[in-house]
């Protein structure tokens, strides 16, 4: 059963998620994306944010010979696979289950580039969705506060602006689409360097996932319930 939150938290979370969903699906259909990098494992576009002084990024790639159910099990923080392939992750945990499809999740990342990027964490409200018609899945994320997860000493609490991850069936493959915008809080680092780090991290994340999915010995159990996707784990 979901733990209860105060009515004020529920209201704030509802508003935050509605705004986040409106934002990412508006960005999804924007005509302002410009190609940033194009590789065998996927393409990254960027767009200058009209609200913040940074960039928004969009990733599109494909995972061959996998189903949406298999890929969702690899990605979901409650799944059995995320810690096996995500080289940037220092762990995830469910802080609060708000409803059957919405949770507050703490995402932790390792330090990178010989300490230039210190360990970070984000506390994100995540809403998972599943389309029973075609088996597609999505999750929208945005940073929130929660009294059950105070900031960790020595770890930067970064911000997740409205973010989207979509999994869509594409023949015998899975198409991945993601919209990502974050605040890295790198004081003293020139902005052009900061702008280059974000797409590198995005590319690394999805390359890790695609390589893991391509391994012949990667067996995915679909009998594990996942918040938000629990009714979809045996399908598609």
UniProtKB/TrEMBL annotation:
A GO biological-process term: lipid transport
Superkingdom of this protein's organism: Eukaryota
Pfam families named in the record: START
Cited InterPro entries: StARD5/6, START-like_dom_sf, START_lipid-bd_dom
Signal sequence region: none
UniProtKB keywords: Lipid transport, Lipid-binding, Transport
Keyword Transport found: yes
Gene3D superfamilies: 3.30.530.20
GO MF, any single term: lipid binding
Chain ranges of the START domain: 33-218
Family matches, as PANTHER family: PROTEIN CBG07384, START DOMAIN-CONTAINING PROTEIN
Task performed by this protein: May be involved in the intracellular transport of sterols or other lipids. May bind cholesterol or other sterols.
Protein name: START domain-containing protein
Organism: Caenorhabditis tropicalis
